[in-house]
Amino acid sequence: MSTRNEILALLKTSGAMSSQALSKQLGITPMAVKLQLYDLASEGIVRSEPGPRSRGRPSKLWALTEDADNFFPNSHAALSRDILVGIRKALGEQALDQVLDARASEQRQRYSRELQSCQTLSAKLDRLAQLRSEEGYMACIDTIDDQTVLIENHCPICTAAKECLKLCNVELELFQKALGDDVTVERIEHIASGARRCVYTIRPTSKKSGL
Question: Which of 45, 64, 86, 156 sits at a 20 to 30 Å CA gap from 182?
């Protein structure tokens, strides 16, 4: 992977970072990082924003712009959006619901097959994150405030989801079904609502879950 792409990937998964932090992560000089950032900024792919003030001058953080989404999987975002709009206009909201329900049913069956051999909730989550990453969501399992979370750093259907929020609601239900009744799934950050990423908390509701 090129340095340019490594920078984009780090900003995508970690959020805004200073050039010093990027330099440390990549193992290259701060100047080399800055040259890449200035080039990316000139193309409108990254932007700078004020960071926490320390002694002396305030630090500068670098973050991705919306144009950076073009460098990550988008599952033919514009086409997906246009198809959803077309179905709604030509056949009505009920027909669109039926299409989304059929898609969710297929996903649910696939995830259930993939997760059925997992013996613990931890194993299920690892496999689910792997499946979602294969679909372009850049997913991982982490811990926030002592809670286990599924993080999706990218949404390849975001353009379509903004047109039809039921796509996101269906995915929330999908995770709940795939992981079973022994857990509660709640979304606490949402890309389609303006957040940098989607984050779902996973809380066991019984001792059988075995995280």
Answer: 156
